[in-house]
């Protein structure tokens, strides 16, 4: 029963979180037993307690290990195909091209953050997980990332404000970020964000 459920819902290389498995009539104890059985028979692999996966194979037929970043993305950013978070802080600034610094600790804002701010370790990789200002959805994630960049612009970038403004303006155009969308969430951010908007001369898309 469990094997069929997993094959139907997960692809090779995708993290399987034990807490996400929902099979009517299967108790937690029964679930642990069957997960161990599938692991012992090498049908699935155990990444760490509560996290499993169907292994991918490389061109030589060797099993490929799953990376901590893959687990983090599936746990905190795209949970079962649903957008629940986004990269933030120094990580976001680097990915947006606002900073050349590559942070050692990945920063993520997620609906699944265990606390307001929590540093966690997945295998040997550290992550800083924050609660977002509002619940993250597919629709609002680009807007929240845009506002996060402006909020953190003084600490997360070494570039001139005008250059940051050009990068963020291009991002706003690419993601159809309008003033109306900004106004829905900007009240959740500190007042310094208005200073960042003024200094960067960032432009939104016309409504």
From TrEMBL:
<dbReference type="Pfam" id="PF19570">
    <property type="entry name" value="DUF6088"/>
</dbReference>
<protein>
    <recommendedName>
        <fullName>Transcriptional regulator, AbiEi antitoxin, Type IV TA system</fullName>
    </recommendedName>
</protein>
<dbReference type="InterPro" id="IPR045738">
    <property type="entry name" value="DUF6088"/>
</dbReference>
